[in-house]
Each structure stands twice: as C-alpha cells, then as structure tokens.
Write a structure and sequence with these properties.
By secondary structure, the protein is an alpha+beta fold. It is 33% helix and 23% strand. Helix 1 crosses helix 2.
C-alpha cells in the first residue's frame, strides 16, 4: 500500500529509496505496483514532491536491489548511494 500523503517523517525506521521521475498519482501507482510484485504486503509511504519512498517492513539488501530494479523497469530512476 502506498500512502501518497505521508511524508518521510511518517515512515518509521524502514528502508528508503529515492525515486526520480514521479510526477503524478499514476506514477505513484506504477511504483506501488512494482514494489508489491517484489515485496507483497509491504507498507510504504511516498513523498511525491521529493520522490522519497520508504518501506516500513524490514528488507534485505538483496530485496532492496530487486525493488530498485523493478522500479527502474517501470520507467523510473532510483538514485543509488
């Protein structure tokens, strides 16, 4: 589930991804769908204006990399670093 209204401070201690290129709610839905395919049931918040995406569920580095690949396959860039 993606909550496009929640800001980064609402995301708890989960993993953070910086997604570049989201400009609308359709983009939020696309990123959400990509994330759900990799980590079903993961709760995330998205700050559409900054591109900050956070997962509340703990994930491994491998799943993080897979999430980034899925988001990039959906047409968005994930900032690495």
């Amino acid at each position: 589930m993606i909550d496009a209204g929640a800001g980064p401070a609402d995301a708890g201690d989960g993993q953070r991804l910086q997604v570049v290129g989201m400009t609308c709610q359709g983009c939020v839905r696309s990123v959400s769908a990509a994330m759900e395919r990799v980590a079903p049931g993961a709760v995330a918040s998205v700050d559409l204006s900054s591109g900050d995406v956070r997962l509340r569920a703990p994930i491994t580095a491998e799943i993080r990399a897979t999430l980034a690949q899925a988001i990039e396959a959906a047409g968005f860039e994930v900032a690495h670093g």
